[in-house]
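REQUEST FORM: STRUCTURE PREDICTION
Request ID: SP-0412
Submitted by: Lab K.M.
Chain count: 1
Length (residues): 193
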Amino acid sequence: MRGNVHAKLAWALGTAAVLGGIAYFAYWVDQSWPWQHFRSVEHGVFYRSAQLEEDELVRCIEGYRIKTVINLRSEVERGRGGDWYGGEKRAIARTGIRHVDVPLPEGHPPTPAQIEQLLAVMDDPASRPVLIHCEKGTIRSAAVEGLWRREYLGETGDEAYARVETWGRDLQADYPGIADFIRNYVSRAQRAR
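STATUS: Completed
RESULT:
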């Protein structure tokens, strides 16, 4: 009987270890694969990520057939963290795709003029698939994912807010302007009613 208890305990511990390993692997994939904070919001149409290194960006462009990269980082950030902007421009030149800068201040949603600029790019089928990125791929890109969800997927504010990936960041607590933007943005279709 004692051996039976030990066998059951060993089985339970082994199962817990396997499940823990699977959970960690799923977390790692979500955070890091194929690149940091990469997300397919609408496969074949709209992707987002953190800042990619030059070769990573080339692989992403080629692998996902990206036609436009929208950089949400500001000019102030260009001197921070090495020559990321030069690498991005070289990757764009190597692949011959469109590059658009829509610099959003860190932690702030797009302005009305920036919304128009983003929509002009995203409305154009020749611009798709689109990859948007900011530095970490969690906050500013979440705002633009929310814009996409509201404008192109027809989601309500609450639906878009619930589905926007933030990798554990609390938009409402830490970035209420972005949370409010996602929830309260009124799409063109809604305005036309």
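NOTES: The longest strand covers residues 39-42.
Reviewed by: T.R.
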